[in-house]
Amino acid sequence: MVKIIGLTGMPGSGKNAAHQVAKELGIPVISMGDIVRKEAERLGLPLTCEVLGGIALCLRAEGQDAIAKRAQRQIAKLLKLNPPPPAILIDGIRSIEEWKYFRRVHKKITLVSIVASPKTRFERLVKRKRSDDYDNWSSFENRDLREILLGIGGVIALADYTIVNESTLEDLHNNLRTVFKKILEEE
User: How many CA atoms lie within 13 A of 177 on its CB side?
Assistant: First the structure.
């Protein structure tokens, strides 16, 4: 049976690093953030934090699990592969409703949270310079508050595994590798 791994964490916590480790282990990644970015591209809108945040809120107006349902379409295709992958990583679970949706559909989802202090996350986002990142503290805090209002704090609290990411990228990769391998070995 294919394992379903959910990934959560605040912006800049290190979720993108999990993609590389997952791929090393033959685990495909479905990014809920990419679903929002693709919707912005489809609408011809710029990929700024304000635009993506607005699109995410509009999609969730269809239902708090609307983005999860779109991700599930991609997951369903992966489950039809022969042979199927050992697991599927769903990156970007931000609300209890999304987590509940995946639990309803898949019966079991193992949730992994990556956490880091606001100062560390802000410094990473400034260095990353993705179009939807902020380079000023006030905007960064506002984005954090938006994520918290979506319910990400509850999802982080429900994690089966929590990885503290206050060290090097190599340490994060090693910790992720350990957790993912443990999940793959679970009955």
Answer: 10
The residues facing 162 across adjacent strands are 113
- What gap in Å lies between CA 141 and CA 95, rounded to an integer? 19
DSSP string covering 8-29 = E--TTSSHHHHHHHHHHTT--E
What are residue 30's DSSP bridge partners? Answer: 90
46: CATH? 3.40.50.300
Residue 59, token pair as written in the block: 């999609």
Q: What are phi and psi of 138, to 5 degrees?
A: -60, -45
103 vs 151: CA distance, rounded Å: 17
CB 103 within 8 A of CB 96: no
Q: Rounded to an integer, what distance in angstroms lies between the CA atom of residue 37 and that of residue 42?
A: 9
Number of domains comprising the chain: 1
Domain that holds residue 146: 3-185
Q: What is the pLDDT of residues 107-158, one digit of tens each?
A: 999 999 999 999 999 999 888 877 666 778 998 898 899 889 888 999 999 9
Number of H helices, E strands in the chain: 9, 5
pLDDT in tens, 157-170: 999 999 999 999 99
Cβ neighbours, 10 Å, residue 137? 12
